[in-house]
Amino acid sequence: MVWVRSEYAGELAVLSTWVTALLPWNVFYGVVGGGTALFIRFPLLQIRYTTGIPLVQATTLSDPVSAYLLQAGTSVQVAYGLWVVGAAVYLVALAASVYYYRNEAAAESWSVDPVSLLGGLLVASAVAFLASSALFPERLFGLSLGLGGGLPGVSVPVGAVIQLALGGVLLRAERVA
C-alpha cells in the first residue's frame, strides 16, 4: 500500500523532518523529592519544569550534549547518550531536508533517493529516542519496564512514535524515476 503519491513525496519528506523538530519525542512527569518534575524533550532541546523541589531551578533549558554531561555517572546517563545519538542523526536529517528544499534538482541527483534518505534518518533517530524513553523512567505509558533507574513517574514518547510513523511512510513512498 502506498501512502503518498510520488509527486508529493519530496514535500512530505521535508515537511515531516521539520515538523518532528516541533514534536517532543518524550514527555515525562514524576513526583520527586516532595515536588513535581515535567521534562519535555524535543530532538534538540529539553525543557524542565519543577515545582516544590528545594535547591532546583524551576525552569531550565538544555541541549542533548549538555544534558548528557550533566548526567555523568548517573543511572540515566545511557538514556541521555541515546538521546545524543538520536539528535545527531536528526541533525543530519534536518540538514539534508534544508538542502533538499533549497536545491531540489541537485538533491534528486544524489546516488540515494532523498525521500528514502530522510525516511531512514527519521526512523533511525526515532528508534534511538524510543530506546532512550525506555531507559529514562521506571514507567513507560504508566507500565513498569524494569529497565531504567530514573525517576519514578510516567513517560510518553509522543513525538518518537509519530516520527517513526512518518519515517516509515517516507520509506514506503514509491518514487517514479
Distance separating the two termini: 19 Å
**Strand portion, in percent?**
15-25%
The overall average pLDDT, rounded, is 87
Overall geometric form: elongated
Helix content: 40-55%
How many helix segments? 6
Question: What are the low-pLDDT stretches, counting only 5+ consecutive residues below 50?
Answer: 143-148
Instruction: Count the beta strands.
Output: 7
Radius of gyration: 18 Å
**Strand arrangement, major sheet:** 4-3-2-1-7
> What pattern of helices and strands is seen along the backbone?
HEEEEHHHHEEEH
The computed structural class is alpha+beta
Largest sheet: 5 strands, antiparallel
Tell me the domain tally.
1
